[in-house]
């Protein structure tokens, strides 16, 4: 969020302040962890182990560095941090911390078989989800001054859905490795979070669709975060597919199998519907209206849905024996890898420019 739109802090930091470069750290910075993690998992599912492993190792480093930067910002500039937390436009970006933690935990379980680290990340993810969900939505509710719908709402709000579904996915994965005494509880939690995420999506997407069709919508309004319209349904598809897979060892899931399969297909169909319109609006924004493609942390919000669609389509096609959909996962994985490379290079160049090394 641009600092020029904020009220100035009571005491300005001096030029020697150790955290002076942290004040404008985007709340959505953990989107890089989300994007890198799901592309890694999709690469693993589609038999690209080298790419999956490289991205996994990179994601561990990225996650640790981003936490150090986040804590530095909280300590050095608490007013900026909490202003973002209660802001309708930037606040939902903090849900990337939740989703990024959940997806990294899923990587530990699937890619390295490290169940202990997966469980540790599960606790971190749940703690972050409780803290962010009830802090952010409470702040939005009790604020005395609130923006108009057309100014305060964007696709980033659906990161709340992704955060909930990341818990569903990680819980379902851990259930396969838990002792019998905890397997049922983990599957039940996965099912509840899957349902909650779906309900939250219906609430928020109704407002977003209303904002699309009944308010002036300029190219600048179509931020990359709107790709989460599709990504939120894609991760819901992945969660449902894992529940279908777990049903054989969970009697209550087995009794609900038709319902779970039906809604999983519903979620996948919804995510598929969004793809053409998002592509059209992206062409309108960048090709027709010639808006800049300069690096923005929100660009990771384009990578994540593409990678998640690849992973979720693969899992759904596998558990529901829909072999005719097998062409989709590789197609979207290659697209996700291409966009990941473009965004990553753009991020590196931006860092180099900021320290005066690169003049491009």
TrEMBL record:
Presence of keyword Transmembrane: yes
CDD domains named in the record: TDT_like_1
Bias (Polar residues) ranges: 1-18
Topological category with respect to the lipid bilayer: Multi-pass membrane protein
Transmembrane segment boundaries: 28-48, 60-82, 94-113, 119-142, 154-174, 194-214, 226-245, 265-286, 293-311, 331-352
Keywords: Cell membrane, Membrane, Transmembrane, Transmembrane helix, Transport
GO cellular component: plasma membrane
Gene Ontology terms for molecular function: sulfite transmembrane transporter activity
Spans annotated as Disordered: 1-20
Pfam family, one: SLAC1
Record's subcellular location: Cell membrane
Similarity comment: Belongs to the tellurite-resistance/dicarboxylate transporter (TDT) family.
Name of the protein in question: C4-dicarboxylate ABC transporter
Organism for this UniProt entry: Nitrosococcus oceani C-27
Source lineage: Bacteria, Pseudomonadati, Pseudomonadota, Gammaproteobacteria, Chromatiales
